[in-house]
Amino acid sequence: MADVRSSFSRSNLANFSRLPWEDVVFLHIFPHFTIPQLFKFRNVCKFCRDACDSYFAWQRVLDCSQVSSRLTSSALMLITKSNFSLRLLSLKNCKSWLCDTVLVEILKRNTRLCELDLTACSGLTNLALFTLAECNRGLKVLRLRECRWVSSDAVTQVSLCCISLEHVDLAGCWEVTDLCVSSLASCCNGLKTLVLNDCYGVSDNCIRIVAKSCPKLSHLGIRGCWRVSNSAVKMVGEYCPLLTILKVRDCRDISEASLARLRIRGVKIDVEQAKWTNMPVGPNEYPEQRDWRIPMVNLNI
Which end of the chain lies in a sparser environment, N or C, as judged by fewer CB atoms within 10 Å? Predict the structure, then answer.
């Protein structure tokens, strides 16, 4: 929308003003506008300002990820100041301007959030998570990927309060430990997705608890968790019959000894299957026998 003022004549605006807001404008017109376009439309006249403000207060979904670099804290406060019914809030990559002051107020007003995405929001602190745990106990989806500030205590508090969580992404949260992951699995038995990629404090201990406590788990990401071994992965395969995706790349102690059965079940794994070699089983017999301990090595250098 290059120039909203020129495209809206008085007659068009009169026709637009007669449309039902909630049934037509909010449902079928404004959702096709980007946030910058809505702000341009808001500046046309008092009627347009009132329409946009009413839409901001009415909407259930707010996704700022596409305009994260152009948005400001004051703009976000204007959008959310009258909204008490958000269900989905995505602030992905709002790293340069988002702070606790703004987010905490939004979380306190909107107590029925189902999904929150704070991926790569580096300007926040654990105060945001403690407020989330206190005010949004029905949360189902939480994405905190690359949030280095996330502490084990904050994740534990969220797990104790938000027991309906189904999808949790903690990839790259370096302070995540066995203790908070165990609490998350024990309290949120309905977990379907758990991503712990590059959480170096995670070990077999909590993955075993995840396996036993989360029978609905379908996606487990432990890429780069070098303390996790075959024994924990075997337990995941045994206790999680719905598992369809497993990320284990860069896990040095995980091999085909635990992955082979999962491949047979059709689980998608992010590492290629090892090549096999023939093993002699008798003095003159060499039937093809797969042995994960001796991979095929090419010495033709």
Answer: C
What pLDDT was estimated at residue 273?
80
pTM for this structure? 0.85
What are the DSSP E strand ranges found in 134-217?
141-143, 167-169, 193-195
Beta strands in the chain (DSSP E): 61-63, 88-90, 115-117, 141-143, 167-169, 193-195, 219-221, 245-247, 268-269
Q: Strand pairing partners for 227?
A: 203
Please tell me the total count of domains within the chain.
Answer: 3
Same domain, 20 and 77: no
Sheet with 193-195, side-by-side order of all strands: 61-63, 88-90, 115-117, 141-143, 167-169, 193-195, 219-221, 245-247, 268-269
| Residue where one domain finishes, among candidates 37, 58, 79 | 58
Range of the domain at 235: 145-301
